[in-house]
Amino acid sequence: MPEEIANCSVCCCTTTSKILMVVFMISLILAILFGNLLTLAVVVGTKHFHTPQGYLKASLAVADLAVGIFVVPVSVYAEVSLMIYNSMPEWTARNSQATPLHPCNFIGPVFAGCTLVSITTIFLLTIERSIAVLRPLHKESVITKKRTSILIVFSWMGSFFLAISPLVFSDEIALEYNPCSRMCNYALGSADFPSQAWNILLLFPAFDFTLLGGTIVINIISLTTIRQHSKRRKHLAENESQSSTKPTFSDIKAAKTIGTLTLAFTASFTPIAVFVVGNVLGNEWCNFAFFAFWILTSNSCCNVIIYGARDQKFRSRAYQLLISALLNTAPKKTEHENTVNGGKDNEEIVKQT
């Protein structure tokens, strides 16, 4: 009983809440896998989406997919153990400094790295769309598939380097399964708050909010330009000489979609940043930690909804793939069954005649 109380947060204090939590986690895994596999199927399997923007969306889907494959299942395992045996697995009681093969040594950096990849990818998507809107004549020469692929590789490398940097540059920082957030989190290995560890832990919110702030500013500039363009188009619809210097309708729609992505991710990430700063300052905020981390995790299944709502071509292609998959999984008659059924039908026709 004492161990259960020690591991109790707002989500898991009763049997009913434990069951609901596990159901939520499993449902989230299925939603993340379905949404991001569908996104990859549309982007990879459709030539229309073989563009720099499509590459970035595929990178974002892979990062979200990793959260559903690696991060959430560990939490499911720990919570199911608590629900069945009324106690957590042994490794959850110790941090990574005390257990060299601690699962959080892998899961923690994966979650942090994929979150950073999502932020940098949304930033790159915003840059790509802003060039298409602000400098439409330079879009093809500046934004190329090769350059985009290189930026994606650097995005992943830089994000995961930053994810493991707290462990590399400070002996005071460890990874642990947090009983409040019900996830693998970074933590200080001692009760004290050394200044070096304090500064390193603040790297995450500082880096994230810098990129998100820049992304929001660029989105505002792009959307303002789109609004001005729409007003000019009403007054100069007959002026053909200016049409080549204006963004296309698809570029405008894509810019609005990326703006929606930015707002959704900013809304889901802000609670995490607030929690990290508060935690570094010595505040535990147990219940807030649970909601903050799982709101961010839930964002991993939201991008496909945004694409489907904002992009008609993506929606149509996704619908075609789903219908095709359903038809292919439907039971089909074998050639022998068709022959037998055909013979019976012929016999009935002969009898009727």
Can you lay out the helices and strands and say which pair or pack?
Layout: H1 2-6, H2 15-45, H3 52-85, H4 104-134, H5 139-142, H6 145-169, E1 173-178, E2 183-188, H7 195-201, H8 203-235, H9 249-280, H10 286-298, H11 303-310, H12 312-329, H13 335-352
Antiparallel strand pairs: 1-2
Helix pairs in contact: 2-3, 2-12, 3-4, 3-6, 4-6, 4-8, 4-9, 8-9, 9-10, 9-11, 11-12
* Spatial ordering of strands, largest sheet: 1-2
From the alpha carbons, calculate the radius of gyration and give it in angstroms.
Answer: 25 Å
| Strand proportion | under 5%
Tally of strands:
2
Outline the biggest β-sheet: 2 strands, antiparallel
Measured between the Cα atoms of the first and last residue, the distance is: 81 Å
Q: What is the average per-residue confidence, as pLDDT, rounded to a whole number?
A: 82
Shape: globular
Contiguous helical run count: 13
Proportion of residues in helical segments: over 70%
Spans of 5+ residues with little confidence (pLDDT < 50)?
1-7, 333-338
Topology as a string of helices (H) and strands (E): HHHHHHEEHHHHHHH
Q: Which oligomerization state do the chains in this entry correspond to?
A: single chain
The structure class reads mainly alpha
Description of the molecule:
The chain is mainly α and 353 residues long. The chain contains 13 helices and two strands. The protein has helices at 2-6, 15-45, 52-85, 104-134, 139-142, 145-169, 195-201, 203-235, 249-280, 286-298, 303-310, 312-329, 335-352, and strands at 173-178, 183-188. Strands 1-2 form a two-stranded antiparallel sheet. A hairpin with a 4-residue loop joins strand 1 (173-178) and strand 2. The N and C termini lie far apart (81 Å). The model is unreliable at 1-7 and 333-338 (pLDDT under 50).
